């Protein structure tokens, strides 16, 4: 849906066959995710999945997400059926959703799907903890993928974040990533700078103690940095 599936797929294949692949990684070592842009009919969703598969050229899609709950109940369930059939046909390995609220997840589970959603990708960070959604997901074995875990750099200088970053001798971004990990989320930090990408992944050297986790949880102000479809009809 981001119109970059061809570029991403060709880059992955080029890397795997290059000298830069010094670890001997194979296709199965790479996790490729893409999404359905909008929910409508089963046929439209099925066609979109096939098009994504063709565009990426990777042989299969590791994770395919419904991008949002927009479109209404019938469209959501029809689109999910398309994901299920794509999994049955070997085009997709795992299915999930994105920006789904509790009511959308309850609706999907109540429909008795053949395949349960493995992932819900939502905006989550200390300034928007979405406890109701994340708790529901974890109770139903749905992995929470936290996008915008760095709050799009809007709160890097917040006094609590700055203070704790100094305490743990880490960057504010590393602190925010670690907060996600300790909540058992899968954070998706974003950067265009190579050094920061590496830095954001280097969080194994410290653990935030329980009192400080509680302090960070208390920063919730329902800060939405992009869009917020979780209450859509």
Summarize the SSE layout with pairings.
Blueprint: H1 5-16, E1 33-36, H2 42-56, E2 61-66, H3 73-88, E3 92-98, H4 102-110, E4 119-123, H5 131-139, E5 143-147, H6 159-167, H7 172-182, E6 186-188, H8 194-200, H9 210-217
Parallel strand pairs: 1-2, 2-3, 3-4, 4-5, 5-6
In words, what does this structure look like?
This protein is of the alpha/beta class and 233 residues long. Helix content is 41%, strand content 13%. The protein contains 9 helices and 6 strands. It has helices at residues 5-16, 42-56, 73-88, 102-110, 131-139, 159-167, 172-182, 194-200, 210-217; strands at residues 33-36, 61-66, 92-98, 119-123, 143-147, 186-188. It has a 6-stranded parallel beta sheet with strand order 1-2-3-4-5-6. Helix 4 (102-110) links the parallel strand 3 and strand 4 (119-123). Helix 2 (42-56) packs across helix 3. The longest helix has 16 residues, at 73-88. The radius of gyration is 19 Å and the shape is globular.
Question: If you average the pLDDT, what whole number results?
Answer: 97
**Structural class computed from helices and strand pairing:** alpha/beta
Residues in helices, as a percent range: 40-55%
Number of helices: 9
Q: What general outline do the C-alpha atoms trace?
A: globular
Strand order of the largest sheet: 1-2-3-4-5-6
Radius of gyration: 19 Å
Question: Element order, helices and strands?
Answer: HEHEHEHEHEHHEHH
Share of β-strand residues: 5-15%
What is the total tally of β strands?
6
| End-to-end separation | 22 Å
Q: Characterize the largest beta sheet: strand count, sense, and whether it forms a barrel.
A: 6 strands, parallel
Query: Which residues form runs of ≥5 with pLDDT under 50?
Result: none
């Amino acid at each position: 849906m981001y119109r970059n599936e061809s570029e991403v797929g060709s880059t992955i294949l080029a890397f795997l066959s290059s000298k830069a692949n010094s670890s001997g990684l194979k296709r199965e070592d790479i996790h490729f995710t893409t999404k359905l842009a909008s929910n409508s009919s089963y046929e439209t969703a099925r066609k979109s999945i096939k098009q994504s598969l063709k565009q990426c050229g990777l042989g299969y899609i590791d994770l395919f997400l419904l991008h949002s709950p927009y479109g209404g109940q019938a469209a959501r369930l029809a689109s999910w059926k398309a994901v299920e059939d794509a999994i049955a046909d070997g085009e997709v390995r795992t299915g999930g959703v994105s920006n789904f609220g509790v009511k959308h997840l309850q609706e999907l589970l109540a429909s008795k799907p053949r395949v349960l959603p493995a992932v819900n990708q939502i905006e989550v960070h200390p300034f928007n903890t979405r406890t109701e959604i994340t708790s529901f997901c974890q109770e139903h074995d749905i992995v929470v993928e936290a996008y915008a875990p760095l709050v799009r750099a809007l709160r890097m200088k917040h006094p609590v974040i700055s203070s704790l970053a100094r305490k743990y001798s880490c960057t504010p971004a590393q602190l925010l990533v670690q907060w996600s990990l300790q909540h058992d989320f899968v954070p998706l930090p974003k950067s265009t700078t190579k050094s920061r990408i590496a830095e954001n992944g280097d969080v194994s050297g410290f653990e935030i103690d329980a009192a400080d986790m509680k302090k960070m949880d208390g920063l919730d102000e329902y800060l939405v940095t992009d869009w917020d479809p979780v209450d859509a009809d």
